[in-house]
Design goal:
Helices cover about 45% and strands about 15% of the residues. It is α+β, with helices and mostly antiparallel strands. Helix 1 crosses helix 10 and helix 15 crosses helix 16. The two termini are about 40 Å apart.
Length: about 500
């Protein structure tokens, strides 16, 4: 969840003070790492799901404030667009209660929210990009009321000095300009959190980067944007472009983008926070009263507010997170590459694959990131986003292979082993990873189903493109509520 901020106008003095405080936070963080002050005994996992709101016909519903008031649960919050909501599932041990318990908890929370949202004329849908969004739905009027988003919007465009240009070539071609960051709201994701010991963080982050392309290929669920059929996971290029603070001249100078895969494997979690300060100017220079050095000197734990706020405006696909829970600090990897949906069953299968595979890769004697260049890992991500489960990706020792072959032959056994090492027995593993296996066997995920269903409707009654997308969206919601994995969804 993003941190709330007040509506403000920033001065040069604000920015100078913020730069100083960020450096002080970074130094305090380095001291905490040296002194091993972090929680490591009870690592937990967490989950955030972003959702869209639609009306009874499947069109966007700009009702997130009303829906949030009706849901009346602190686990829920608004997101960038008025048609977005987000739920933060409470953290837990990976094997606590078994996957059935986690699934029951998540479905109960979503069903309660759906019931309450219905009372204000809205419905929840878990999908990477809402197919029925049109250009008029992502203008300034669609920006959420929270002052954080207005302030962030103003700062992004102050840095750019010009409108955003969004350009994606897929089956169709999308060319459009935007004078707000609201197109980013079209991107709704699933975010898996993994708490680790600081000394283990670089291995887990490197592993997460190495498999990002495979994750996206397996779980792609965003083939349509503003009425165009584009990439299987169009969220990736859209998010990269919709929050870009760089005009063309700055891009040409090699300045890093704020939506960033990164540029190297790391040796410490410190590397990522240090890069944040070195490469990215502050968008929201808000200073806390807390002095991190004084806080450490008296034996307390600093919040590092400036460091964490700045980190929240740099959108790495695998983001480092520093947080304090129950007076104990910890670090975790926030895995941000996956779209929302299609179902809770699919979501938990994606999580099992991610948690299991990263654990197994970290345990390998010769890490995969020592055998794969960082640029290849990034290329895999964009190839997977473009082609989905049909992509050919590179993997050390295998070369360039299809995603199903790579997963079935190499990665799925590793995911099983990683979950076993984490204490999850086969009775829990098999149903979850069996969903991943069947996606590979059938070659079907959310993006494939959406594309096939859209073309089936369009070729039959020929209702027109938007109407076909609307009908497909309604059918998607019906299957979503059944919670049957997407590879089993019919097209008829």
């Amino acid at each position: 969840m993003g941190r709330d901020v007040p509506a403000l106008v920033f001065t040069r003095e604000d920015r100078r003070r913020y730069r100083i405080k960020m450096q002080e936070c970074l130094e305090a963080f380095a001291q905490m790492l040296r002194e091993s002050r972090f929680e490591t005994e009870r690592p937990q996992v967490g989950l955030e799901i972003e959702l869209n709101l639609v009306d009874d016909t499947g069109e966007p519903a700009m009702r997130n404030s009303d829906a949030l008031e009706a849901i009346a649960d602190p686990s829920w919050s608004t997101e960038l667009g008025r048609f977005n909501l987000e739920i933060n599932i409470p953290p837990r041990r990976l094997t606590a209660g078994g996957p059935d318990a986690w699934e029951t908890e998540i479905r109960a929370a979503l069903n309660h929210a759906e019931d309450r949202a219905t009372s204000v004329g809205a419905h929840l849908i878990m999908i990477g990009i809402l197919p029925t969004l049109r250009r008029q739905d992502v203008g300034e009027a669609a920006l959420s009321e929270n002052p954080r988003y207005r302030l962030l919007n103003d700062q992004v465009f102050a840095a750019r000095g010009e409108d955003l240009h969004i350009e994606v070539d897929g089956v169709d071609r999308l060319r459009t300009y935007a004078d707000t960051i609201t197109p980013e709201a079209a991107c709704t994701s699933t975010q898996f959190h993994l708490q680790v010991a600081p000394e283990e963080f670089p291995d887990y982050w490197n592993a997460a980067q190495a498999i990002a392309g495979v994750q996206v290929a397996l779980a792609a669920n965003s083939p349509f944007l503003l009425g165009k059929e584009l990439w299987h996971e169009s969220r990736i290029p859209l998010f990269e472009q919709a929050t870009d603070t760089r005009p063309q001249e700055i891009k040409a100078q090699g300045v890093r983008p704020r939506v960033w895969f990164g540029e190297r494997w790391i040796n410490s979690v410190f590397d990522l926070f240090e890069e944040n300060l070195r490469y990215f100017p502050a968008l929201l220079p808000l200073c806390d009263e807390q002095d991190p050095a004084e806080t450490l000197d008296r034996g307390d734990i600093p919040e590092l507010g400036e460091l964490t706020l700045h980190n929240g405006t740099i959108y790495r696909w695998n983001r480092p997170v520093y947080a304090v829970a129950h007076d104990k600090p910890h670090v975790r990897v926030e895995n941000r590459v996956l779209p929302a949906g299609p179902t809770v069953a699919d979501t938990l299968a994606n999580g099992a694959f991610y948690y299991g595979l990263t654990r197994a890769l970290v345990e390998e004697e010769r890490p995969v990131w020592s055998r794969m260049s960082f640029s290849v890992a990034e290329d895999n991500l964009h190839t997977a986003a473009r082609h989905g489960i049909e992509a050919h990706l590179y993997w050390p020792g295998v070369g360039e292979v299809t995603v199903p072959e790579l997963v079935l032959r190499r990665l799925l056994p590793l995911a099983h082993r990683g979950l076993e090492l984490s204490g999850m027995d086969s009775a829990w593993r098999e149903p979850l990873l069996g969903i991943i296996e069947q996606r590979c066997v059938t070659g079907r995920n959310g993006a494939v189903w959406q594309k096939e269903m859209f073309h089936h409707i369009d070729a039959g009654a020929r209702p027109g493109r938007h109407e076909a997308l609307r009908r497909m969206t309604q059918q998607y919601m019906d299957y979503m509520h059944l919670n049957a994995p997407v590879h089993t969804w019919p097209v008829d």
